[in-house]
Specification:
heterotetramer, A: 273 residues, alpha/beta, ten-stranded mixed β-sheet, three-stranded antiparallel β-sheet, globular, B: 260 residues, three-stranded mixed β-sheet
Chain lengths: 273, 260, 273, 260
């Protein structure tokens, strides 16, 4: 059964230096509050896993929390580059960042394999691209029935999986709706999991399009109202598109980036932007 | 009625889409063109975004493929594994709409790195996103990208998504089920592969664009189709619909953001 | 786009002698009306595919429509045997029935592979059982990353996939809820598909737990109110448990079986029991 | 208060389940026992049926694992592929509850064919259903089955679901993640595997059942545990709860129907 605990305690208990950590949320329900708590707790050498690193990993990378990134698309959606990510890759600032790069289909299937207790997944993907040349984690596999050659990728089973959701009940059952993305797979694939939620309610009344992750499949639940901002939680908050655009300027420069983190993440009483 | 070259490009791209087609759309120029088509001649066009929204009908242009408007207006919202495994991979999608940072003479797309070593590139681009499998599995692919020597290169620094590989027969050899890039729409004109060699050649020039200008903006010796034609100028209706669509929305990104 | 047509026409157009046909519905939304129409149209040599053959395949097999059955559990749920199925296997009446037998996990993953455009699926299954000894469609496969040996099964892509659902709109978009089972996978895995529905409505208003199969992924939709009886359609009909118990006696004897089919399926104006 | 041997069997099985455990349940005796446990000492027991219903809380016993009551009372309803791939296969389930038509000395289960050739058997049984993977992947397995020489055999005619295979080490060799059949509950007593040989031996006799009778009903030379004990008779509370549960429901089937 999931324990409902404060965010700070959940992160302190679950996330250790050197862990592989997946903070997911495919363009919706991105767990910014949890990511900021990881920055506040000063974690180091994390292997960060995420399909779309987005602003949250730009911030973790810029603060030197990560030594490796496993991802499939590292941009600022609809805006352009992630400058802290690029600075780390192009100039090794503030620390060199090892990359393991996949396609979305490959990453999604790696989480599916992890959630399914399988060591690998099979897909029609990567063939003819230069991606297999950059990692040992993309290999050909032959169908034992047709002889056709396809592509295999290894399961992802992060030490810690962290997602945001709209609601949980007091027993720790989690409910989310809208774009459900890869949330369930990450929780089920991870060895330990944390779900931050907009609110904790007495009863999870059924909602169209909602999925429920039962409490017994989750390690911790923590209340984090607004915890997905500047991403959003459908029916609770709206996506702060202006901040995504503003981030381009903030993150372009190392000093303005640090100043923003100091003010909005590290300062006493700071709240997720 | 005057118009910009970006508007001409977007309208030319929208014209490629037909009513009832199922279209896998990336954010930015592809999303703008697909929604323009849906709001003009191609009512009933089915838009699929890789966030899992099938049949989305956004009233305004989403900044991100995860915009709430997409889920709220979709016929169905499915998980990310499902959108790639059940919907894209089997070849159910008619048209895949992609951008590019580099596009080579065989329609191969680079959205990964430019210059230097892969591990220490001169420019680190966003990466693959959904593009490799969109390029592999959609029945046909339309690429929309502004034309310049920096972008239209003899050989891509990195092949993120396969067009025609190194030429005829490569897609079949690789087992890629889709037909590959059928059309490339730029701010200068329209290209399509030579049926024999699969090399991209010019089929249309937009009004007022000279062949020389198009060649100067291309990193290989750009050939022309025998029936090289001029693109019809945007109609008032097309321009009005496009401007209504973009009015409420931040400018689209300048390069392939289909992953966002 | 799915065409909305009468059931009789849909079956006549889609189902031919010798076709592989999957009528699915995992203990819910079982397409009895469509199955009875196949009996009325006198199809022969069908390869019937279904996880739980249930009464509907007992009826098709007893009427000699099938030459082969691909399945994973052939019983009368909660009651006991399928006597027509047993008579065909044990005594070859009315015709010999070739069997291809799997586990539920194997069948489910075969449909998933079929829906995904993959030639095979991988699972932890069958190991140590006598099932692989009876079919060439269960083979070992080795993980290219860990070297672990798992099991592969080939994709199922039936010529025709038939399922029942609660509702469709006039454009042919299908909506179903409750136990969704394997319905979506069968429709997507099949070369041609038919969805029978309790009713056709103007608008598919969102429902908790409902999934929608878009019209353009379906071949035909046909109205068949009560078409899943004696199975059920949640919120429309209830499972006729008494009939499942009664079937044991009806089907035990060849003559009483034929008499029942004559009266309830073949007779003019007969309706699905 | 008098009771039947079936009632003793069902109550003995229910007692094996602990509060908060997650239990994968087949229809028939397993479902009756699991729901009895949930209604008596094991409140909070999580019931999973292979129809995709997680945390079902049926008020009456379902005749089919697809009964509407299961979906209506579940915490979550998922697809059939998901229930097997995401929930059963990774070993998240504490207890798998199975029936059997034949059970051999090593706890291997046959629900496929008895006698004759596979293609022309003397008795054609329903088949595997979910049992092979339940037996493979649940952390432990409880088998509930009426005891007779026809059912408890030296060697199963067909291995549908693996117990301990041919003895110690087989499960590890086969890569089966679960511990295998920890307990076998019959209408005569309770068996558990010898820790050394993995052969099923008698640990409990139900009240009034003699060791000779249990041995006569077993197709191998049935050994007894050093601490062979008598099962506690059903309490009035247990009997009342069981009878309330079964009152509204048709009789469960006589053999492993986990597939239905």
């Amino acid at each position: 059964m999931a324990e409902v605990v404060p965010l700070k305690d959940a992160v302190a208990t679950l996330v250790h230096d050197g862990d592989s950590v997946a903070l997911e949320g495919f363009t919706h329900l991105i767990p910014f509050a949890a990511g900021h708590e990881i920055i506040r707790q000063g974690r180091r050498d994390l292997v960060l896993i995420r399909m779309t690193p987005d602003l949250i990993y730009d911030q973790l990378i810029g603060m030197g929390c990560a030594s490796k990134l496993v991802f499939s698309w590292g941009g600022n959606p609809g805006v352009g580059s992630l400058h802290r990510f690029r600075d780390a890759v192009e100039n090794g600032w503030p620390a060199p960042l090892e990359l393991e790069e996949h396609s979305h289909a490959g990453m999604a299937n790696r989480y599916v394999a992890g959630a399914s207790g399988l060591p690998f997944a099979v897909l029609r993907g990567y063939r003819g691209t230069d991606l297999p040349g950059q990692t040992a984690n993309i290999k050909p596999i032959t169908c034992p029935f047709t002889g056709e050659e396809l592509t295999a990728v290894p399961a992802l089973n992060p030490d810690v999986g962290i997602v945001h959701a709209q609601r949980a009940d007091r027993a720790g059952n989690v409910q989310l709706w809208g774009i459900t993305g890869i949330q369930k797979e990450v929780v089920l694939a991870a060895h330990r999991s944390l779900v931050t939620v907009e609110e904790i309610v007495d009863e999870l009344d059924p909602r169209p399009g909602a999925i429920v992750i039962p409490s017994w499949a989750v390690t911790y639940v923590a209340a984090a109202p607004g915890g997905s901002q500047p991403s959003y939680s459908l029916d609770y908050t709206i996506r702060d598109n202006d901040f995504y655009v503003a981030w381009d300027k903030i993150a372009r420069d190392r000093e303005t980036f640090r100043a923003w983190i100091d003010e909005h993440v590290l300062a006493e009483g700071s709240v997720p932007a | 009625m005057s118009y910009t070259s970006d508007e001409m490009m977007t309208i030319a791209a929208a014209r490629q889409l037909r009513p009832g087609q199922v279209c896998f759309v990336g954010i930015g120029l592809p999303s703008t063109a697909a929604n323009l088509a849906r709001n003009t001649h191609a009512a009933g066009l089915v838009l699929i975004y890789e966030s899992g929204t099938i049949g989305a009908k956004p009233g305004h242009l989403p900044l991100s493929i995860g915009d709430g408007i997409l889920a709220e207006t979709a016929d169905a919202v499915v998980s990310v594994p499902e959108i790639f495994n059940y919907w894209l991979q089997p070849g159910r999608i008619d048209v895949g709409f992609l951008g590019a940072a580099q596009l080579d003479r065989y329609g191969n797309i680079n959205t990964t790195v430019i210059g230097g070593e892969y591990a220490r590139p001169k420019v680190r681009l966003p990466g693959a996103g959904g593009a490799p499998e969109i390029a592999a599995s959609c029945r046909e692919v339309i690429v929309i990208v502004r034309q310049s020597r920096r972008t239209f290169v003899e050989k891509a620094d990195f092949i993120t998504s396969v067009g025609y590989g190194s030429g005829p027969g490569d897609r079949e050899r690789l087992g890629l089920s889709g037909a590959g890039p059928a059309t490339v729409i730029t701010d200068l004109g329209i290209m399509a592969p030579d049926p024999e060699t699969k090399e991209l050649r010019l089929t249309h020039l937009h009004p007022g664009v000279t062949l020389d200008r198009a060649r100067e903006a291309t990193g290989w010796d750009l050939a022309t189709a025998p029936d090289l034609d001029e693109t019809a100028a945007p109609s008032e209706h097309e321009l009005a619909a496009l401007r209504a669509l973009t009015a409420a929305t931040p400018a689209p990104p300048s390069r392939g953001s289909q992953g966002g």
